[in-house]
TrEMBL record:
Name the record gives this protein: DUF4037 domain-containing protein
Location(s) in or outside the cell: Cytoplasm, Cytoskeleton
PANTHER family named among the record's database cross-references: KINESIN LIGHT CHAIN
Keyword vocabulary terms for this entry: Coiled coil, Cytoplasm, Cytoskeleton, Microtubule, Motor protein, Repeat, TPR repeat
Length: 708
């Protein structure tokens, strides 16, 4: 199918503006679930239905019929935003199936539609450019793809926040283009940027699908570097560089599989890419049997999800045959990837190798010329170049026992720090976490040695600690693991699942501080396990909190806010808006599950955290964040109507109506999400009455978990 131009002057496009196989889709007699009673198109319902197809354990072949039907239905409903949503999903689907020729038409249609809608300079324009560029790249249209990527980068600077994961995805995809056009070093650097962005923004990099995918991509990009394929005729220096690069690639490939397994993500179709990537790297380092085992596992997933006709199946099958022949010749058995010697800190070794090759880590001559580094980046680099060498030199017998990282209070632990955050409690520093036995043996001396480390580093420092961050409340240095968590939460370890009242005593912001940040190394896994226990809020507690938040949302937003506005009590209405906003923000985190997205942090970082998780494609209630900000913008006019600005109190009514409509819109989105998650079968819009349905999912009879 060739790409077709479309008329910009058409206000309503007819069915014949789509190719024949798409036209046929619209003749279905069954009413799709995403069409409302009035015939309008519901994009959210469409996406939920698509997710259900992709999340099913059966073949995803039915996805195309669903997508083409939705394409025709959105067109017939004259819903351009909905149509653009479907087109972006079709682009991704055809790309993953190797349907590149069909995809060219879809890409052109999406770009034309977005331009017709005058979306330039918007988030939707950036997203469409990225999807179009990636589709063009997969189709081998490299010149057009690079142009679209550059447009996307320019647009992203205007529309995306620095922590938005789509920036990392953009760098990730741009690296593929550089790799496929022979610019290997540029490809590696783009991926290193992407990996750093994703790791810094992730609530749990050890279970993060995007982090895993980037590790795989980086492993393969390194493998493609000419320096990684130096033959035996190379000199000793070249041979050493080759070995270093192969080990770095092997570390990234293993880390990807580690994340899939730690996070229980093996059912995801992208697991096949991680397995195939591991197979390619394992083959390069001479582990032919493990390479064949990885390819075998990948091939089964590819057949299930993409079919034997896909490019991925053909390429992987060829690689499997080659690996089997090499394994047989080398006398190696075909076996599953052996990760027994792998632990989380292997990723650190890969990261170290990456950083050693990155120019941006060069020490600046002054603070004015220093590179912009986040607190987590600064801490990791300080640990790698100062902390780890200290342990290796003075405590070699403890190197395999001490955990290092940065977790706790402070904006840098969330990745939210900026230039305004550096006036206090900021500078070179990291945490060292020891078991009780090790702390008793070396804790005091290790703290003294830590204090003797350089006070300035990379143009930063010395660290200025506020009164609240000294003594027992210190934020960096040497800690016994139980003491560290007790200093934040009051508990040396997470409450037991059968003690829900203890969980309910812990504010979400406290749990956020105990589970944020990044762990650079943990050979024993003891600290990571303790932190994970605090992230693992029991479902009964989560359901109880969801019920409580629904009660406050309905009480403050649906009941007291309109009554206060009707009374003319702007102050009471203002407070109602505040309570409503806090409850909705908390609900977003609870519905998405803290195990996946972390906990809602300290109030001043509420919206930074909401924006961060809402930028992810799979986040439930993602659009709510922007609507909450709109409510806050409207609140002044609605509550006080211009009083004090020479307007005599006039003009509040229209703004109040918009405010109440926005509140109700959020409540309806919450209701739909509760229904989609199977938490309620009720269609009652006043959310207080949804509480019994939520609490019916609580298995414990503990009275602290149930409302009166």
């Amino acid at each position: 199918m060739s790409a077709r131009a479309t008329s910009e002057s058409d206000q309503e496009r007819s069915a014949d503006s789509f190719p024949a196989h798409i036209q046929r889709a619209q003749h279905s007699t069954q009413q799709p679930h995403y069409l409302r009673a009035d015939g309008s198109f519901d994009a959210e319902a469409f996406l939920r239905g698509l997710d259900q197809i992709f999340d099913s354990s059966q073949s995803n072949d039915e996805a195309e019929d669903y997508l083409l039907q939705a394409l025709a239905d959105a067109e017939n409903a004259s819903d351009n935003p909905g149509l653009l949503t479907v087109l972006n999903e079709v682009i991704g689907y055809y790309r993953s199936r190797g349907r590149h020729q069909d995809n060219l038409w879809m890409i052109q249609r999406a770009l034309e539609l977005a331009a017709k809608m005058q979306l330039q300079g918007s988030d939707a324009w950036t997203t469409t450019l990225i999807n179009a560029a990636t589709g063009m790249r997969a189709a081998g249209q490299y010149e057009q793809a690079e142009d679209l990527y550059q447009q996307a980068l320019s647009s992203a600077e205007q529309t995306l926040k620095p922590g938005d994961r789509r920036l990392a995805a953009l760098h990730n995809n741009l690296s593929m283009l550089y790799s496929e056009t022979g610019r290997g070093q540029q490809a590696v650097e783009e991926l290193r940027q992407a990996l750093q962005m994703l790791t810094d923004s992730s609530p749990d990099p050890e279970r993060d699908l995007d982090v895993a995918s980037t590790h795989t991509n980086l492993a393969l990009a390194i493998l493609d570097l000419p320096e990684a394929s130096t033959g035996a005729d190379g000199n000793q220096e070249q041979a050493q560089e080759r070995d270093d690069l192969l080990q770095e690639a092997y570390g990234h490939a293993k880390q990807a599989l580690h994340i899939y397994r730690t996070g229980g993500l093996e059912a995801n179709p992208h697991y096949a890419s991680a397995l195939a990537g591991y197979g390619q790297v394992a083959y390069a380092v001479g582990h032919f049997g493990q390479a064949a085992g990885a390819y075998q596992a990948a091939l089964a997933i590819i057949q299930r999800d993409y079919g034997k006709a896909s490019d991925s199946y053909r390429i992987t099958q060829e690689n499997l045959q080659e690996a089997q022949q090499a394994a047989q010749a080398a006398g190696q058995p075909v076996e599953a990837p052996n990760l027994a010697d792998f632990s989380a800190n292997s990723a650190e070794a890969a990261g170290q190798a990456s950083n050693q090759k990155s120019d941006h880590l060069a020490t600046p001559a002054s603070a004015e010329s220093r590179p912009r580094m986040s607190g987590l980046q600064l801490a990791r680099t300080y640990w790698q170049e100062c902390g780890k060498p200290l342990l290796e030199a003075k405590y070699p017998q403890y190197v395999g026992r001490i955990a290092a990282g940065l977790v706790g209070h402070g904006s840098e632990c969330y990745g939210f720090d900026d230039e305004f955050s550096q006036d206090h409690d900021f500078g070179p520093g990291f945490c060292l976490w020891l078991t009780a036995e090790d702390y008793a043996a070396i804790g005091d001396q290790l703290q003294a040695d830590y204090d003797a480390l350089p006070q300035t580093f990379r143009g930063y420092g010395p660290r200025e600690d506020s009164v609240r961050a000294t003594g027992a409340a210190k934020r960096v240095g040497v800690f016994e693991i139980g003491d560290f968590f007790q200093s934040i939460t009051g508990y040396r370890q997470a409450p037991a699942p059968d003690k829900p009242h203890e969980w309910l005593l812990l504010p979400e912001s406290t749990l956020a501080a105990a589970t944020n940040g990044d762990v650079f190394a943990d050979p024993l896994g003891t600290f990571l396990q303790a932190r994970q226990d605090f992230k693992s809020m029991p479902d009964d507690v989560r359901f109880a909190l969801i019920s409580q938040r629904l009660g406050m949302i309905s009480q403050a937003g649906q009941y007291n806010l309109p009554r206060s506005l009707n009374r003319g009590d702007g102050a009471a209405a203002w407070l109602s808006i505040g309570e409503f906003t806090k409850a909705v923000a908390s609900l977003v985190f609870l519905v998405n599950n803290p195990l996946t997205v972390g906990y809602l942090p300290y109030y001043k970082w509420t919206f930074a955290a909401l924006r961060q998780i809402s930028s992810r494609m799979a986040t439930r209630l993602g659009p709510v964040t922007e609507e909450l900000e709109t409510i806050l913008q409207l609140s002044s006019g609605a509550c006080f109507g211009g009083r004090g600005f020479g307007e005599g109190g006039k003009g509040a009514a229209p703004v109040a109506q918009r405010l109440l409509a926005a509140v109700e819109s959020i409540c309806q989105q919450i209701l739909r999400e509760l229904q989609a998650e199977g938490l309620t079968t009720s269609s009652e819009g006043f959310l207080e009455w949804q509480r019994p349905y939520i609490e019916s999912h609580i298995s414990s009879a503990d009275p602290s978990l149930h409302s009166l």
